Amino acid sequence: MMNTPKFIGFLILACIFLASCSGSQKDQNSYISADALFQQHDSILAHAEEFSDSVEILYAKGLKVSYQEDGIHVSISNPDPAVKHAKAEELIITKPATKFICTTALQLGNFEVLGLEDRIVGMNSLKNLFSPKMRQQMKEGTTVKIGKEGNFDLETIIATQPEYIFVSASKHGGFEALKECGIPLISHHGYKEVDPLGQAEWIKLIGLLTGETRRANAVFADIEKKYLTLKEEIKTDSLNCPTVISGRQIRDGWYVVGGKSYMAQIFKDAGADYILKDNEDSGGTTLDFEAVYAQGINAEFWQIDSSFDGDFTLDVLANEDARYATMNAYKNQKVIFCNLAQTPYRELAGVQPHFVLADFAKAFHPEILPNYQPKFYKLIK
Between residues 125 and 190, which one has the greater pLDDT? Predict the structure, then answer.
């Protein structure tokens, strides 16, 4: 006769064993969605015709679009939370434009991710230009240099016959002179969006202006899918939440990203606890060195970006200030660095936030993206 208590005990042990095996299988496969998405090499633009020709703004706070009988009405404003009662620019689009001038690297990046660099007929002087197509266009003369803020070459600008000139709110010198050309100026405030997907969504403005809305919708849908899939996998798998500090000493203080900034949101979405998350700044800010050092000395990770000629190493960092070598992130080789002189961060990070998120997820939680190669930020030794 079967011993009932022993049999029940056996069943319980068997269930525990099967559950543990199932759990192990889940652990092995729980990150497959994001990793598979980031390994896709199929051209998104090849499927653009499958997307809507109408634009809907979902994340960007500085853009509003409405379709009316006399054209597409676009309201453009500065989404920076620190800017109060900013006057919106009103634009009515009645036909596609083919010629633009860009005055920042990020504006170029908006065209670049859409494969529309050929629409850019003029660029200001950029120290680091990464777009192969734009470099070729400048070499051939189909895109010309228009000078720098405060010293624009108005004759060259007029000669290119642009339909629109993009300007930036962060650069004030010389833009008043551009008004003398009689060419409409459009403020591109994408970099002021604190939501990473809000920054990327400004590519829809380029889609509207160029008549390539299907293309813009297709590219943004891919960015959104990858970003949200990765964000959700980080959140739902209940991973540990490492602490992170940002920036370093620049002139009179420690320059950090604000607690309400784009980068702070990236840290959060990548599953990290930003040491200065309670800071109210939506951009970068400079704080007292000792105060930041005291808070960040025990942080597990440290994010830095800078233009550096050559390989930026831990030794280089310690040579800047010996106190850096006492920080936990330094001692444990968990400094995440982006070399602005060697990566297209200024051009593409704002319109490819899924890669920025993946870079930090790779550092904070490397098991999530085992096959991913960082694009902008990577751990240094």
Answer: 190
Domain total in the chain: 2
Contact 307, 128 (CB under 8 A): yes
Pull the structure tokens for residue 29. 């496969």
Domain span at residue 129 reads 45-223
pTM of the shown model: 0.89
Torsion of CA 203, 206, 210, 215, to 10 degrees: 0
In a shared domain, residues 211 and 65: yes
**Pair 318, 294 in one domain:** yes
Cα 366 to Cα 169: distance, rounded to the nearest angstrom: 37
Domain annotation covers residue 18: no
Nearest to 380 by CA among 344, 340, 338: 338
As a whole number of angstroms, the distance between CA 281 and CA 82 comes to 8
pLDDT tens figures, 272-321: 999 999 999 999 999 999 999 999 999 999 999 999 999 999 999 999 99
Give DSSP secondary structure letters for 35-76: HHHHT--S-SGGGGGGS-SS---SS-SSEEEEEETTEEEEEE
175 in any annotated domain: yes
Is 189 in the same domain as 115?
Answer: yes
Whether 145 and 169 share a structural domain: yes
Same domain? 205 vs 247:
no
Residue 338 to residue 376: CA distance in whole angstroms:
6
H or E element in which residue 227 lies: helix 213-236
- Dist CA 204 CA 215 (whole Å): 9
